[in-house]
Automatic annotation (TrEMBL), chain A:
It comes from the Bacteria. Pfam families: ZnuA (PF01297). Keywords: Signal. Residues 1-24 form the signal peptide. This is Zinc ABC transporter substrate-binding protein. It comes from Shewanella jiangmenensis. InterPro entries: Bact_metal-bind_prot9, ZnuA-like. The keyword Glycosyltransferase does not apply.
From TrEMBL, chain B:
InterPro entries: Porin_dom_sf (IPR023614). Transmembrane segments: none annotated. Keywords: Signal. It comes from Shewanella jiangmenensis. Residues 1-20 form the signal peptide. Residues 216-239 are annotated as: Disordered. The keyword Ribosomal protein does not apply. Residues 226-235 have a biased composition (Basic and acidic residues). This is Zinc-regulated TonB-dependent outer membrane receptor. The keyword Signal applies.
Length: 301, 398
């Protein structure tokens, strides 16, 4: 089916008088910018589109026309999974009528299915807020998990585009070498952060804190998905006054008002961290994102 | 009987909903919608009634059937005038793997004409659908039939679809039950295009044409009582009160959020225009042109109905949103061999509190001003409503 559609595309291009490349570039649809960035490392020649930016909360995305149009053309969709995109991705799959990216197809890649997520829940009830039974989906701040994902994505790329399998293997080896070299550098830089206690918005940086040995002692959200309420903020102020908390951490797509109120009352600094690639000027790729996040955290310590 | 079935549905829901998250083999997505309200008057054209009441309580089950088909069943339980009605709103299959952007949906489903029609009622920002929907589509139009859709492989979203439907709900009134209706009565063609403007805004335009083989009125017989074609004749069925052979729908929607981040603030502007043409029975039509002496004081020569609305909804923060909607409707009501021109204007203001993404409490004010509508006594309506969803709630449309 895929080969046929490619042949069709090539012959259509020829009929229109264009000189088509022998093999069309793989079309990648990334649900979040971190997966677009990873795809860029592993398949730099691919045509890559990110459905969201680092300033957009991936829980709350509109299944908008442009995304349906992009999904329609995708050979491979890269998403976090664990229900992060449950409010919009199924609608895109349904409306785009693209068999290549339906669930279970080679072209539909859910990161959470390839790694161990943190905070899996045996029992999920909506009184607990908007929680995910399959664990925390914000998993791109775990460098070892990113390595696992890189090799799983490469396997998919090779399935979808076997003609360039060798090239994908080379790109993966190159990425793994650079990433494995960066991990000890990051860990050395962040060594002083071990044991640092913060208050944060949502569990967005769960994997980062887990990796660097930091501790999120409280959440600005009273329940996952619910905005900070005044009553809850008052209880956080009590917690902050115990004196062991170093900062209030907010992701680039989160509202800072609750954090600013708490900061004003408690004297703790507010730290807005880029949630993904593109979240600040330094976060041009995954390496830049990790560099930037660690540099920002170190400033308050 | 119905009560028994309801309790079976309810108990299967309760046991499954606690676990239901991502649909799996043993665990399809099961969701329910609870909708209750108090209103201080009756809304015309099949809207909510005075007093305490329930809106559509909905129970839906959906899952992939296999790697080729997806299926969904939505039952709706409504209470009107003390009667509990169990209705099947959706029971369809849809293909998942046709080539080249094609898909087929078959069974009972929401027609894809207009902007609101294929959306579920509980996602609306107002208590009732606009008057044009209540007049021409019976609130929301779901029917038995088949749809073929195609999505273009372009960066500009472009989809095109055709539907063939039973059209029983959109049949013109037939007093004597003698008329031979076409069994496939409604053919729809629709197209939608859409895209983004920068990171902040998105838009969609839609056009639809409905060809209703049974939309023209049944010829009037001399000496008969006029066939009252409005609310009274149809009670609270989901049938359209006004039909015609051709319906044209144009819709536009624009959404905006700062940085395209819908979590905190966002704005939705939308508008739709309906024109329903060719409803006069062939015989009446002739008379209008041929016999000049046929001169009733209420009669008009117009052979179309028309309606439109514009709406703006703003979410100030995750807890609060407000909406403003204005709509007009111009219809012709059959009275025997002549017609009465009707006119309705609705101005609506809604204020919504969302404790979470799954619960909404709404206070709505409606000013309805009309001429020649039965049951239009109160010009000012206040509606207090809750709409809540439980279970594995599916993704929303744009």
């Amino acid at each position: 089916m895929r080969i046929n559609s490619k042949l069709l595309a090539v012959s259509a291009a020829l009929m229109l008088g264009h000189s088509a490349p022998a093999l069309a570039a793989v079309n990648v649809f990334a649900c979040e910018p971190e997966y677009a960035a990873l795809a860029k490392e592993l398949a730099p020649d691919a045509s890559i589109y990110s459905a969201t930016t680092a300033l957009q909360d991936p829980h709350q995305v509109q299944a908008r026309p442009s995304l349906i149009a992009k999904m329609r053309q995708a050979d491979l969709a890269l998403c976090a999974g664990a229900e992060l995109e449950v409010g919009w991705l199924p609608m895109l799959q349904m409306k785009s009528a693209n068999a290549a990216v339906r669930d279970g197809a080679d072209g539909m890649f859910y990161a959470a299915e390839h790694i161990d997520t943190l905070d899996k829940l045996d029992k999920v009830d909506r009184t607990m807020g908007d929680v995910h039974a399959q664990g925390n989906p914000h998993l791109h701040f775990s460098p070892t998990r990113v390595l696992t994902l890189a090799s799983a994505i490469t396997a998919r790329l090779k399935q979808i585009d076997p003609a360039q399998a060798q090239g994908y293997d080379q790109r993966l080896a190159d990425f793994e070498r650079r990433w494995q070299a960066a991990i000890p550098r990051w860990e050395a830089e962040a060594a002083a952060l071990k044991g640092t206690k913060v208050i944060a918005y949502h569990t967005s940086f769960r994997y980062l804190f887990d990796w660097l040995g930091m501790e999120q002692v409280a959440d600005l959200e009273p329940k996952p998905g619910l905005p900070p309420s005044s009553g809850h903020l008052a209880s956080l102020l009590e917690r902050a006054r115990q004196g062991d908390v170093k900062a209030i951490v907010v992701a680039s797509y989160q509202d800072t008002r609750g954090a600013e109120w708490l900061s004003e009352k408690s004297g703790l600094p507010v730290l807005v961290l880029p949630m993904s690639v593109g979240g600040d000027d330094a976060s041009v790729d995954l390496f830049g994102l990790y560099d930037s996040v660690i540099a920002r955290l170190k400033k308050v310590n | 009987m119905n009560a028994f079935r309801l309790s079976v549905l309810a108990s299967s829901l309760i046991s499954a909903a606690a676990m239901a998250q991502t649909p799996t083999l043993t665990n399809p997505a099961i969701s329910a919608v609870l909708d209750g309200f108090y209103q201080n008057g009756d809304r015309v054209l099949g809207g909510r009634e005075e007093g305490f009441g329930l809106g559509e309580s909905e129970l839906a089950i959906s899952a992939n059937i296999d790697d080729m088909f997806y299926g969904k069943v939505t039952t709706v339980i409504e209470v009107h005038d003390g009667d509990t009605e169990l209705e099947l709103e959706e029971a369809f299959i849809q293909t998942l793997a046709l080539p080249a952007g094609f898909s087929v949906r078959a069974g009972r489903f929401l027609s894809d004409i207009g902007y609101l029609n294929n959306q579920h009622l509980h996602t609306d920002a107002f208590a009732d659908r606009p008057a044009a929907y209540r007049a021409f589509l019976g609130g929301h139009y779901f029917d038995d039939g088949v749809r073929l859709s195609w999505v273009a492989p372009t960066d500009l979203y472009w989809t095109f679809g055709v539907e063939a439907l039973k059209g029983e709900k959109l049949r013109a009134a037939d007093e004597h039950g003698e008329r031979e209706f076409d069994t496939v009565g409604v053919y729809n063609a629709f197209t939608k295009i859409g895209g983004d403007i920068g990171d902040n805004s998105s838009w969609q335009l839609g056009l639809a044409l409905m060809d209703n083989r049974n939309g023209r009125l049944t010829p009037y017989e001399e000496g008969e009582e006029g066939h009252d074609h409005g609310d009274d004749a149809h009670g609270h069925s989901h049938s359209a009160a006004y039909t015609g052979e051709k319906t044209y729908v144009a819709d536009v929607v624009y959404k905006w959020a700062p940085d395209g981040n819908y979590k905190y603030q966002h704005l939705t502007l939308s508008g739709e225009f309906f024109r329903v043409e060719d409803f006069k029975a062939a015989m009446l039509h002739e008379e209008d042109h041929g016999e000049e002496e046929h001169d009733h004081e209420h009669d008009t020569a117009k052979d179309h109905h028309q309606g439109w609305y514009v709406s703006g909804v703003y979410q100030f923060n995750p807890n609060w949103s407000a909406g403003l909607r204005y709509g007009e409707l111009e219809t012709e009501e059959a009275h025997g061999d002549h017609f009465h021109a009707q006119d309705l204007k609705e101005t609506e203001l809604s204020l919504n509190y969302h404790h979470s993404h799954f619960s909404t409490v709404r206070l709505q004010y409606t000013r309805q001003q009309g001429t020649n509508f039965d049951g239009l006594n109160d010009d000012n309506l206040i509606t207090l409503q809750y709409v809540m969803t439980l279970g594995a709630h599916g993704a929303h449309q744009f």
